[in-house]
Write a structure and sequence with these properties.
The protein has 271 residues and is of the alpha/beta class. The protein has helices at residues 58-68, 98-111, 122-128, 142-155, 157-162, 186-200, 217-226, 239-247; strands at residues 13-18, 29-34, 37-43, 46-53, 78-85, 90-96, 166-172, 177-183, 207-211, 230-233, 251-257, 260-265.
Length: 271
């Protein structure tokens, strides 16, 4: 989508002069680009990780990330978040409980000296695949899933402007999108949504999560950490994601497209 010079862009988008070619060159014009910045999460002065993210809803992102990554057991362990722009990105300076700080230090000691690449190998996978309590089942009408999918694209303002972002939405049992967050990263979008729901005290037994990406292992684990009973994805799940979802009592739907979807776990809960 071309962002004309007078077009108001949504938060998280910036104009950039570009030219289009379709048989011939167009005159230079503004295009909308999704903003992507380095966001460092710093806990009680301890640098933990740097994520590439869209710089919107960062307080929600901080809360959602710390919860879904198991760094805090409850929102009460996060005392405050300060968003500090720097010359090279943004720092999220989090004030957390002593228990959270101990978890962070233990995780750093566990990883010290280990070679490898992220989740490669059984030891790394065992560290990441946390033991989470099974979620409560939720029954959803098929029409609610279809209705939510039909509404999803129209609610993605940043994606409409830039074509470069993912979204995660919270949908009630009637298929209405009540909350939606966007980001260049699919995990970030879900973390932002989790933070939003927790901050607003939304009861997660009366709805489900809808995402614009594949249902990867991390997306399943974050949904389980939230306590959601159903995760619907517009793309496919992975084998590890389905295995973890089955173990955690989470219903997973994939290929959620106009008028159709595929149930990979607990399809009998769709009415």
């Amino acid at each position: 989508m071309s962002a004309g010079p007078t077009l108001a862009l949504p938060a998280g988008a910036s104009p950039w002069a570009a030219r289009r070619w379709s048989g011939s060159w167009s005159p230079p014009g503004d295009e909308a680009l999704a903003e992507e910045v380095a966001v460092a999460l710093v806990f009680n002065g301890i640098a933990h990780t740097v994520m590439m993210a869209t710089p919107t809803d960062l307080e929600d992102f901080a809360l959602g990330f710390t919860l879904t990554e198991g760094l805090i057991d409850s929102p009460s362990e996060l005392y405050g978040v300060e968003v500090v722009p720097t010359g090279v990105g943004i720092e999220l300076q989090l004030e957390v409980s002593a228990a959270c700080e101990r978890r962070l230090k233990e995780r750093r000691r566990t990883l010290a000296g280990r070679s490898g690449c992220g989740l490669c190998g059984a030891e790394s996978l065992a560290q990441v695949r946390r033991s989470l309590a099974p979620v409560a089942p939720v029954q959803v009408q098929t029409e609610a899933v279809v209705r939510a999918e039909a509404e999803l694209a129209a609610r993605q303002q940043l994606q409409q402007a830039t074509g470069a972002t993912h979204a995660a939405a919270w949908v009630n049992l009637q298929g209405q999108l009540l909350h939606l967050r966007e980001d260049v990263g699919r995990h970030n979008a879900l973390d932002k949504l989790v933070g939003t729901l927790v901050r607003q005290g939304v009861g997660v037994t009366h709805g489900f999560v809808l995402i614009t990406s594949r249902a990867s292992f991390e997306m399943v684990q974050k949904s389980v950490a939230l306590g959601a009973g159903l995760l619907a994805a517009v793309s496919a799940p992975t084998s590890l994601a389905v295995d973890c979802a089955h173990e955690a009592n989470l219903c997973v739907l994939g290929f959620v497209r106009p008028g159709k979807f595929t149930a990979y776990t607990f399809g009998e809960r769709l009415l």
